[in-house]
Amino acid sequence: MENKYEIVKHGIKESIISEGYKVSDKLPTESELMEQYHVSRYTIRRAIGELQNEHYVYRIQGGGMFVDDWQKERATHVNNKMIGIITTHIADYIFPNIISGIDRIISANGYSIIISNTHNNHQKERQSLIRMLDNNVEALIIEPTQSALNNPNMDLYQKIKEAKIPTLFINAYYPELDFPHIGTADSDAEEKLTEYLLDQGHEKVLGVFQVDDIQGVHRMNGFVHAYLNHPEISYLSEIVMYQSSDEMAKIFEKIAKIFTREDRPTAIACYNDQLAIQLMDLIRSIGLRVPEDVSVVGFDDYQLSKYIDPSLTTVEHAKGKMGIDAGKMLIKMINHEEIESIEYQPEMIIRKSTKARDNK
Length: 360
Known about the structure:
InterPro entries: AraR_ligand_bind_dom (IPR033532), LacI/GalR-like_sensor (IPR046335), Peripla_BP_I (IPR028082), Tscrpt_reg_HTH_GntR (IPR000524), WH-like_DNA-bd_sf (IPR036388), WH_DNA-bd_sf (IPR036390). It holds the Pfam family Peripla_BP_3. It is built from twelve helices and 14 strands. The chain is an alpha/beta fold. The strands form four sheets. A six-stranded parallel beta sheet has the order 4-3-5-6-7-13. Strands 9-8-10-11 form a four-stranded parallel beta sheet, with helices on both faces. It has a two-stranded antiparallel sheet with strand order 1-2.
């Protein structure tokens, strides 16, 4: 639990970093801050003293407290060998492999990492960015949050850019920013996966995609492109879209209703393996079989996908390689070396969750 002075310090610092207070702005008086935070004068002075030492604030005798040029001071003093990593998740799915790959390279080059988790929420992303700036990290590796939506944190990203903090995006990127990135050719891969289902005789395929992440939008576009290659059956396709904040029970209820129809789809293309595994359970719960009645494909080659019954047809995700490549690229960026963005071309992995359909 934070001490009172730390709450005051972090509150003022957050306002400075997010430009609630700009460089050279006059801060509220000690009395005004005491009233705002409901603390003593001693607490305010201790918080301001630490902010002065960190070059966020300066005093003018008899004139008050002002915002210092913290970005200029940061560029002069930062050399703490600390790298910040911000991802949407940390402990589950593909993320441990990515983070482990990053850490192997970063630690081998004498750096330590600070990890923060946004849960794919913009407010938590904002808190993570402020935390990283607060810790004066030398560089950042970031997985964008809800990357298909307008981002309210562009002010902080502009601060990062102005401060010339080497920053690398993974899995997705914000088109408004020219930071390098590492990702997967999601649209092409999903198109191939859907073409595989169509080649197997599945004319009625349901696509289920998370569309607040740009990866999901690209995968959905690949699904659509596959059907555009077959205009004679494109009207048979269906799509269910959802966002990470949606109540998944309602999404599953909607999908269950689709599969109780007489003209139900014979295959599902899923946003990722995690969703595919859940939908395989759903299919079985309504009395249908995978793959005899419904073929299912995922995306990412999650480590459990090969062990479930039936094993899941999917598309590989670089995971550990992405982490290693991200670590190497960031070290080059820190050393002012030339780098280029990377886009992996993943391969399909055909397993037992799909089966050819006889349409005769």
